[in-house]
Design goal:
The protein is mainly alpha-helical. The protein has 10 helices and 2 strands.
């Protein structure tokens, strides 16, 4: 059964991520009979997208393990996972809200199908695992929250380039998410809200990288391109 999160805490240490609420340790191959096995193999286009960098960090045994988890969460055996199904999973010993699940799905739904397939799920898994470790390492006092200084430190030091933004820029984004009210807070970001902020910034970076064809960190855009970039970014109003 599920247990309510402890006051001021955010669940267990990294390492307990990823299990469906009622399917921890699901045997490999469980529930996969109705799946097209081809759906477990990403296309070259998917690997070149922003999720590909996360997927390719996975070891073969991790991918095999996630097949069982994916099948257990995909309760209707559609071969994809909806936001509702995603919110039934546990992240660090806690389930995420449906609102967070919708935002994560919007970020990782790279083909805009309204749900995530196995490749997208694997990328999501690796992303959240990395964020969980980064959050836990930065939360030195184990308060379950990060203040603006800790968040800035995390984003400038995280893998895959981080975000080399000024403190003022991070403060603006921090304020936007701190005020969204997704979780009960007395100041700072809890893990779920930190996850939303990180997912948002990563998707914005992926959108920028798509237009930065010469990879020099600069792009020149007109109004039409700005509109195209805006509509491809995840919404903050989920």
């Amino acid at each position: 059964g599920q247990h309510p999160p402890q006051q001021g805490g955010y669940g267990q240490q990294p390492g307990g991520y990823g299990s469906p609420a009622q399917a921890h340790g699901a045997p490999q191959g469980h529930g996969q009979a109705n799946y097209n096995t081809q759906s477990f193999h990403p296309t070259q286009q998917q690997l070149q997208g922003w999720g590909g960098a996360y997927y390719q960090q996975l070891q073969p045994h991790e991918i095999q393990e996630m097949k069982g988890w994916f099948a257990a969460v995909d309760k209707d055996r559609s071969g994809t996972i909806t936001a509702s199904e995603l919110s039934s999973m546990q992240f660090g010993g806690k389930k995420i809200s449906l609102k967070t699940a919708k935002m994560l799905l919007a970020v990782f739904d790279t083909d805009f199908s309204g749900s995530i397939g196995f490749f997208e799920y694997c990328a999501l898994h690796k992303f959240i695992t990395g964020q969980q470790h980064a959050f836990y390492a930065a939360d030195a006092d184990r308060s379950g929250k990060l203040d603006i200084r800790e968040v800035h430190q995390v984003f400038t030091s995280m893998s895959m380039g981080g975000f080399q933004f000024s403190q003022n820029t991070i403060q603006q984004v921090f304020n936007r998410f701190e005020k969204k009210g997704f979780a009960n807070r007395t100041g700072g970001l809890d893990f779920e809200t930190f996850l939303q902020m990180s997912a948002y910034l990563n998707q914005v970076r992926a959108t920028f990288a798509h237009h930065d064809t010469d990879r020099d960190g600069w792009i020149r855009i007109n109004l039409e391109t700005l509109v195209q970039m805006s509509v491809s970014m995840p919404t903050l109003q989920v």
